[in-house]
């Protein structure tokens, strides 16, 4: 079970976007693609066959998974995540600071 999943709200803890929040779009092996975070300008060549316009576009690039923390709405801060097994055998993620379960 992964500690971070697609759709989780995370906060960036280091780098040029430190302190910004966003939603995870994709989880790659050791990196995550976060909406609106780590934006770069990409020079794109036009491809009329595929209907792609040329020019300079803004694009999100992946950020290492160690540079983001899951956002805890109870504390309004980033929080560490653990995994525990409930009595009925299900594995769930929980916030380390207050023990609240992430997935209800």
Structure, described:
With 104 residues, the chain is mainly beta. The protein has a domain at 9-73: SH3 type barrels (Roll), CATH 2.30.30.30. The protein is 0% helix and 45% strand. The strands form three sheets. A six-stranded antiparallel beta sheet has the order 6-3-2-1-7-8, with no helix packed on it. It has a two-stranded antiparallel ribbon with strand order 4-5. β7 and β8 (77-79) form a beta hairpin. It is elongated, with a radius of gyration of 17 Å.
Defining key terms:
elongated, six-stranded antiparallel sheet, two-stranded antiparallel ribbon, mainly beta, 10 strands, 45% strand, 104 residues
Which SSEs are present, and which pair or pack?
Elements: E1 9-12, E2 21-27, E3 31-34, E4 39-44, E5 55-60, E6 63-64, E7 68-72, E8 77-79, E9 81-85, E10 91-95
């Amino acid at each position: 079970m992964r500690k971070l999943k697609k759709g989780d709200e995370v906060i960036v803890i280091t780098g040029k976007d430190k302190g910004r929040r966003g939603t995870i779009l994709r989880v790659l092996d050791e990196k995550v693609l976060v909406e609106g975070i780590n934006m770069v300008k990409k020079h794109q060549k036009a491809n009329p066959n595929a209907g792609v316009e040329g020019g300079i576009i803004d694009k999100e690039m992946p950020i290492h998974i160690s540079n983001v923390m899951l956002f805890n709405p109870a504390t309004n801060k980033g929080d560490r995540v653990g995994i525990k097994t409930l009595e009925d055998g299900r594995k769930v993620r929980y916030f380390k600071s207050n023990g609240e379960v992430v997935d209800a």
